Amino acid sequence: MLTIENVEVTYHHVVQALRGLSLEVPDGRIVTLLGTNGAGKTTTLKAASNLLGLENGAVGEGRILYRGRDIRGVAPDRLVQEGLFHVREGRRIFAEMTVEDNLVAASYALDRRDARADYDRVWDFFPVLKERRRQVAGYLSGGEQQMLAFGRAMIARPRLILMDEPSLGLAPKVVEEIFATIRRLNAEDGVTLLVVEQNAGLAFSVADYGYIMEHGQIVMEGPTETLRDDPDIRSFYLGVAEAGGGAGKDTGETRQSFRDVKHYKRRKRWLS
Ligand SMILES: Nc1ncnc2c1ncn2[C@@H]1O[C@H](COP(=O)(O)OP(=O)(O)OP(=O)(O)O)[C@@H](O)[C@H]1O
Ligand SMILES: [Mg+2]
């Protein structure tokens, strides 16, 4: 569905954000991309949806293929029409418009005249949005706004959704709902997803495969079952310290202190 090959990205001709990044998102799968702040996760998504131009960023070397076709030079709105939808960080919705009009605006932008069935599908996924459909979107809770951002993506009948930190700043219960939606959209509609997350435990609960990036490159990848058991991932991303003396997997696990994590960071075992 999406292939990123050795991509280099620079902002303002000087700031190099991606350094030969490669990743693959197979059709029908959920793939997660993890990494520390500033690693280049958002840049990767923007490169794939051709939004870098808005920020004076550009892809230099490398290729990005969406459904086998090089997307270089294809306008972002064209990509949306072709089924590639980027749900950006920070819930971009029209705050002064009603919930319903946010969906209507999404369908107009796609030139989709009869979108009633699409709205019904959004209401079915998110009943709370249906209840609030005549309310101004700016007054929705953070979680509801994230649902609405998701709903706007659904209107586009996407094949591939790029999601940037859907859990950011949301309460655990709401996050669970958003992730249940990700699973459902994948299972029922066969939508492929590339999900950027800070919460690795959550990401691993939905994804088939994961990539870890640092400084604009992929430093580790694998099926999520493998990543979940990796000691480095466990200590750094899952915040779990291994129990001493080879004790059972789930006994004696404690939250790791920030100091330990920093120590871990210096070691950077996966780079050596
Ligand atoms: N518009 C921009 N102009 C200049 N530099 C930028 C711009 N956007 C991002 N960068 C730089 O590119 C690098 C990667 O940023 P990016 O936003 O992709 O990271 P991220 O992994 O999404 O981080 P976070 O977890 O904080 O969201 C950072 O060093 C950042 O400062
Ligand atoms: Mg980001």
TrEMBL record:
Pfam family, one: ABC_tran
Gene Ontology biological process terms, A to Z: L-amino acid transport
Molecular function GO labels: ATP binding; ATP hydrolysis activity; branched-chain amino acid transmembrane transporter activity
Keywords for the protein's UniProt record, in alphabetical order: Amino-acid transport, ATP-binding, Nucleotide-binding, Transport
Record has Amino-acid biosynthesis as a keyword: no
InterPro entries per record: AAA+_ATPase, ABC_transporter-like_ATP-bd, ABC_transporter-like_CS, BCAA_Transport_ATP-bd_LivF, P-loop_NTPase
Ranges of residues in domain ABC transporter: 2-240
Domain of life: Bacteria
Cited PROSITE patterns: ABC_TRANSPORTER_1, ABC_TRANSPORTER_2
Keyword Chloroplast found: no
Family in the record: Belongs to the ABC transporter superfamily.
Annotated protein name in UniProt: ABC transporter ATP-binding protein
The organism of origin for this protein: Rhodosalinus sediminis
